[in-house]
């Protein structure tokens, strides 16, 4: 049997060390076979050993993950929301792939393909409704996860990159909602996209952005193709890339505890991430799965009526609920140059939010930063109040 030596040839005497750097300074990876069972663990099966021999380089990483622990305290509950967002995203991938088997992204066929899916395809209605409900829940979970991370100041040193990758993930998640809304090509989707894609027009150079978003001056079949390709190719690709970085950082840096919790003895112990925390995550995912099935069956969304670009816009056009707060702000600022000011304020607010790990210096020194807590509360109150105002005025 080979010795516990990465450069040993399995089944023979240990090989001599390979030079890692050649004379010219070029790195050369070791060429000998790795030990299939470096820790001489009697529980490793033949299949396990086969993989270990090939992926020897990641064994230390797996060892590290096995040691990862999650702190237990009265706010631990909030640690589950990132995982729930991840679960609903996985549901989106699976149901989205199924929907794509029937969906046709052209103005002539899009609506009809939705009707066909909803009425003719076995369980097509269920897949469509699950996709729609899971999208809403994913956005909701990401909102909760972002605000709970903010209030626990999880963005503080050394987790700045977790916050930054998370912020981009948040924008991508909203992007999914925006681009997916037009795909059924029904009346509401059509006019809401017309309103939504018009917003940049008031800003300098905005007409160019509108043109990019729409693929022309108006919302047409070009817009539909554009939204479809962004929804099914660009956004999933970017999200997977960012998510890999986000989750890798979670594993490397571990889960943070709120400021002062360790020092004041408020940590009630630690639990292993693998398998204890992951098993609890799985319970949350099962509850989430039950919830989307329940909502899909008992509260199915309508298909609406087919979009007619020549018809006048119906009353009460509004975007999806997660854009209501910004939508209302644009309406509230309906004085000369008001929309431009609203866009400026929203951009400034988003910029502040994005760079918060570098602005909250006190938190990075493990000191309480109540001003940032108050700012977070103001953001949250603004969002909730404006969202509620739209609900009160327009209904669901
Ligand atoms: C698609 C969206 C997202 C997914 C799937 C996701 C997933 C996760 C998961 C699974 C964790 C580890 C468990 C937890 O703390 O909940 C985590 C941690 C974290 N996430 Fe996200 N996340 C997303 C978006 C965001 C956003 C929008 C932000 C903030 C702007 C953010 C900031 C963080 C931070 C700071 C942590 C570290 C928490 C700690 O160490 O205490 N994430 N994320």
- Put simply, the count of helices is 15
Anisotropy-based shape: globular
User: Could you tell me which ligands this complex binds, including any ions or cofactors?
Assistant: protoporphyrin IX containing FE
CATH superfamily of the largest domain: Cytochrome Bc1 Complex, Chain C
Q: Major beta sheet, specifics?
A: 2 strands, antiparallel
Strand tally, please?
Answer: 2
| SSE run | HHEHHHHHHHEHHHHHH
* Ends distance: 68 Å
Structural class: mainly alpha
Q: What does the average pLDDT come to? A: 92
Unreliable spans are 1-13
Strand arrangement, largest sheet? 1-2
Cα-atom radius of gyration: 26 Å
Kindly summarize this structure in a few lines.
The protein is mainly alpha-helical and 396 residues long.
Describe the structure.
The chain is globular. The chain has helices at 46-54, 59-67, 80-100, 110-119, 124-151, 160-182, 187-198, 206-214, 221-253, 273-298, 324-332, 338-354, 356-359, 361-364, 370-394, and strands spanning 69-71, 270-272. Helix 5 runs antiparallel to helix 6 (160-182) and helix 11 crosses helix 15. It has a two-stranded antiparallel ribbon. It is mainly α. Residues 79, 81-83, 85-86, 89, 142, 145-146, 149, 154-155, 159, 162-163, 166-167, 169-170, 173, 243, 246, 250, 255-256 line the site of protoporphyrin IX containing FE.
